[in-house]
Every structure is written in structure tokens, then in C-alpha cells.
């Protein structure tokens, strides 16, 4: 049974940092495993943030987070992280981890003075 559990969200001031975690169970990371982070505001469409595959050898970011966010994958932990630096109020959203058609419950990130 595939499960993705996100954690690490919270309230942070503009310019601050957070690290989100996505713990995966029910499957193990292999070279073709693609893990993604996306975010969503109420009433809005889900927005792609970052993806990683090839056991961490390949990554992709949305233009809005490039240079500020870093996605990483740890096979031994079966966990994917999203390091978020220089956070802006417009980064406020529910952040979701997805893979193979599965998704977690999300973790809320709020960037506010």
C-alpha cells in the first residue's frame, strides 16, 4: 500500500527557511521513480513546484522557485525533501508530495510577517 506523508510545514517570516519532508512507504526508490512537490491555494489549481528522479540525479523546478528551493532524495530513508529558502508571502500554500498517481495529505506553509 503506497503512502506519502508530508511534514515540516509551518509559519515563517519572509526571507526565512523551511524544510519539508515526504516519507514514502509501500514502494522503494529506483532510477525511474519520479517524486514531485506541488502546492495549492484554496480555490486555485495545483501548481508544480519541483520534481526529482534518477535517484536524485535529475531535478526540475518551476521558474517561481528556481534558485530558492532545493529538492533532494534519500534512497536509504525513502524520503524526499524540499529545502525552501528566501521564502516569500506568495509561497504560502498547502504543499503536496506526489508519485505514481498517489499523493499525501499535504503540509501547510504560511509566509507572513
Write up what this structure looks like:
With 113 residues, the protein is mainly β. It is built from no helices and 11 strands. It has strands at residues 3-7, 10-12, 18-25, 35-40, 47-53, 58-61, 69-74, 79-84, 93-99, 102-103, 107-111. Strands 2, 4, 5, 6, 9, 10 and 11 form a 7-stranded mixed sheet that branches. The protein is globular, with a radius of gyration of 13 Å. 27% of the residues are buried. The mean pLDDT is 96.
Mean pLDDT: 96
What is the overall shape?
Answer: globular
Tally the beta strands: 11
Report the β-strand fraction as a percent range: over 45%
> Percent helix among the residues?
under 10%
Give the biggest sheet: 7 strands, mixed
Radius of gyration computed on alpha carbons? 13 Å
Poorly predicted parts? none
Specify the number of helices: 0
Based on secondary structure, the structural category is mainly beta
Span between termini: 40 Å
Instruction: Spell the H/E element sequence.
Output: EEEEEEEEEEE
Task: Summarize, please.
This protein has no helices and 11 strands.
Which keywords apply here?
four-stranded antiparallel sheet; mainly beta; 113 residues; 52% strand; single chain
List strands and helices in order, with pairings.
Elements: E1 3-7, E2 10-12, E3 18-25, E4 35-40, E5 47-53, E6 58-61, E7 69-74, E8 79-84, E9 93-99, E10 102-103, E11 107-111
Parallel strand pairs: 2-11
Antiparallel strand pairs: 1-3, 3-8, 4-5, 4-9, 5-6, 7-8, 9-10, 9-11
Amino acid at each position: 500500500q503506497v503512502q506519502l506523508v508530508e511534514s515540516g510545514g509551518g509559519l515563517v517570516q519572509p526571507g526565512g527557511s523551511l524544510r519539508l519532508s515526504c516519507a514514502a512507504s509501500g514502494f522503494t526508490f529506483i532510477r525511474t521513480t519520479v517524486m514531485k512537490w506541488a502546492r495549492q491555494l484554496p480555490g486555485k489549481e495545483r501548481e508544480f513546484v519541483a520534481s526529482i528522479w534518477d535517484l536524485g540525479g535529475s531535478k526540475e523546478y518551476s521558474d517561481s522557485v528556481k534558485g530558492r528551493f532545493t529538492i533532494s532524495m534519500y534512497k536509504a530513508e525513502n524520503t524526499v525533501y524540499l529545502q525552501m529558502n528566501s521564502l516569500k508571502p506568495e509561497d504560502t500554500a498547502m504543499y503536496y508530495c506526489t508519485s505514481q498517481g498517489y499523493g499525501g495529505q499535504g503540509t501547510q506553509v504560511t509566509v507572513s510577517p
